[in-house]
Structure formats: structure tokens, C-alpha cells
Amino acid sequence: MVKRSKVARILALSVMATALIGFNASESRADAATGKKAFDSKKCGGCHYTTGPAREKTIADQLKKKGPELWYAGSKFQKEWLGAWLQNPKPIRPLAYNSLTKKNPGNHPKLAAGDAAGVTDYLMSLTSKDVAAGVIKAKKNLKGKLVFTKKMPCSGCHQYEMRKKVKGGLSGPSLVGAGKRLNPDWIYAYLKAPKAFKPVKMMPVFTGILSDKQMKDVSTFVANFK
Ligand code: HEC
Ligand code: HEC
What tens digit of pLDDT does each residue of 14-40 get? Predict the structure, then answer.
């Protein structure tokens, strides 16, 4: 008797759990749809495009863009970082977008918490098939550190923090805190196939220069930036 009621309880619990999972999935789909409405009504699409594949064919196409493409945002960013940044955006690129001289004005539009949650769900639903999941795990990586700081000019264009000091160049996005912002698997996918994401690039292409192993090492290293 005791046994049977235990079984019944476990069954009931698992039915409930399934129902809850089902409920959550449909809820986050609904949030993505609401978030898309907020994205449109706040005119985010005036500066960001959200459907892939990459559209830029020439430097002129790149210079016409008023903000980075977001069509693979769900593969690039970490959800928690995105939700917080949309409410309190701090400069990512030290310099203004598409400029090598002007400072980033730090005037990105802000969203209220409710809109930010919906827009986050919407942007996290935009993914790229070129990002394989579960390949790169953030951790210390001495070989990756050597690639980043010595063998390759990465640090000449990207800020990063080491022993509580921010160093590095200004022409690329800052990588301080990249471990909280970027999906480790995206970093590797981007180094491996930059053209899939940014066909007209202002970053050198490292395919053929770095081995696959070195790309994995340096991605592991960058993904560990606090
Ligand atoms: C006037 C143009 C403009 C508008 C409008 C705008 N953005 Fe942006 N957005 C930018 C620029 C420029 C950057 C790069 C900022 C930086 O590097 O600090 C950016 C960066 C971002 C990023 C990070 C992308 C990356 O690859 O680094 C996200 C996410 C984002 N915007 C979302 C939004 C959302 C959501 C809205 C609507 C509420 C919005 N933006 C409205 C210009 C704009
Ligand atoms: C000549 C300057 C330059 C060098 C050298 C360089 N980068 Fe970049 N990097 C850039 C620029 C510029 C971008 C932004 C491209 C864009 O958004 O159009 C970028 C983007 C990135 C991003 C994505 C950041 C983001 O938030 O979108 C990562 C990660 C990155 N680089 C890592 C590296 C690594 C690792 C190396 C060395 C193997 C390297 N970079 C070397 C200029 C450089």
C-alpha cells in the first residue's frame, strides 16, 4: 500500500514537472513575441538588423550600419548579461561604432526592466547554425594567453584586464568582462569562420594563421575574462 502511494506520488510529480516544463517553453515563446514588439516599437531595428545571413558585401555597406548586427545575438551573448546591459548599457567598444577616432559617446538607448526581459528573450531566440554548442569551456589557458598577449596582435586591438589592470588597444570591442558577455562557443566559431558573422571585417582573419587548437586555446582564454 505504502509502496503504491509512493509510486502514485512520483507519477503525479513527474506529470506536474512535465506540465511545468511545457508551460515554461510556451511562456518564453510568448515573451519572445512580446519582446519583438517592444524591439520594433522602440525602433531598435533602425540601427540593428535581426535576420541572417550577414548582408554586408562592401566596406560601404559596413559604414552604413549604425550599430552591430543582432541576427545571431542568441548565439553570441549570455542571457543574463544581455538582460542587464539593455537596462544599463555601458560602452563595449571604446570608440564610437565604425570610427577610429571618436570616443564612444555612451548614449545607447535604455530599456525598462519589463521591456528588457522581453527583448532579451526575443534576441536570445536569434541563433546561428554556425555556432556548435559545448565545444569551449571558460578556464585558465596558458597557451591561449600566449597567443593573445604575445604570438598574435590580439591585445593591440582589444582591451583586457590582467592583475586588476586594464591594458590593450582601443580599435576593437573591449574584452574586459568578455567571460560574462560572450558565449565561449561563439568566440571560437567567430575566429574559425569570421565571414559567417562579419563578412566585411575590421579584424584580421586568423584562419590559416592560427591552428584549430590555438583558436580553441585563445577562445578558452578570452572566455575566462572576468
Ligand atoms: C541610434 C542607433 C541605435 C539604436 C536606436 C539602438 N542601438 Fe543598440 N547599439 C548601437 C551601437 C552603436 C552599439 C554598439 C555600442 C557599444 O559598442 O558600446 C549597439 C549595441 C547593441 C548591442 C550589443 C551588440 C554587440 O554586438 O556588441 C545590443 C544587444 C543592442 N545594441 C540592442 C539594442 C536594442 C534592444 C535597441 C532598442 C531598444 C537598440 N539596441 C537600439 C546603436 C543603436
Ligand atoms: C587589427 C585589430 C584587431 C586584431 C589584431 C584582433 N582583433 Fe578582434 N576585433 C577587432 C575588431 C575591429 C572587432 C569588431 C568587428 C566588428 O564588430 O565589426 C573585433 C572583434 C573581436 C571579438 C568579438 C567581440 C565582440 O564583442 O563583438 C573577439 C572575441 C575578438 N575580436 C577576439 C580577437 C582575438 C582572440 C584576436 C587575436 C587572435 C583578435 N581579436 C585580434 C579588431 C582586432
Answer: 555 544 544 555 566 669 999 999 999
Confidence of residue 201 (pLDDT cuts 50, 70, 90): confident
pLDDT tens digit string along 74-130?
Answer: 999 999 999 999 999 999 999 999 999 999 999 999 999 999 999 999 999 999 999
The x, y and z cell numbers of residue 61, run together, are: 555597406
pLDDT at 70 over 50: yes
Q: Which atom of ligand 1 is nearest to the CA of 106?
A: 18
Site to probe by mutation for ligand 2, drawn from 158, 171, 192, 218 as the one with most ligand atoms within 8 Å of Cβ, is 158
Any ligand 1 atom below 6 A from CB of 68: yes
Q: Separation of 203 CA from ligand 2 center, angstroms?
A: 5
Whether the CB of 46 sits within 6 Å of ligand 1: yes
Question: Nearest CA to 191 among 108, 135, 124?
Answer: 135
* Contact present, 169 and 159 (Cβ < 8 Å): yes
In the prediction, which pLDDT does 28 show? 66
Residues 6+ apart with CB under 8 A from 151: none
* 73 pocket-lining for ligand 2 (C-beta < 6 Å): no
Q: Report the C-alpha gap between 99 and 80 in whole angstroms.
A: 29
Q: Which residues, other chains included, contact 31 with Cβ-Cβ below 8 Å and sequence gap of 6+?
A: 117, 118, 121, 122
Residue identified by cell 592583475 is 163
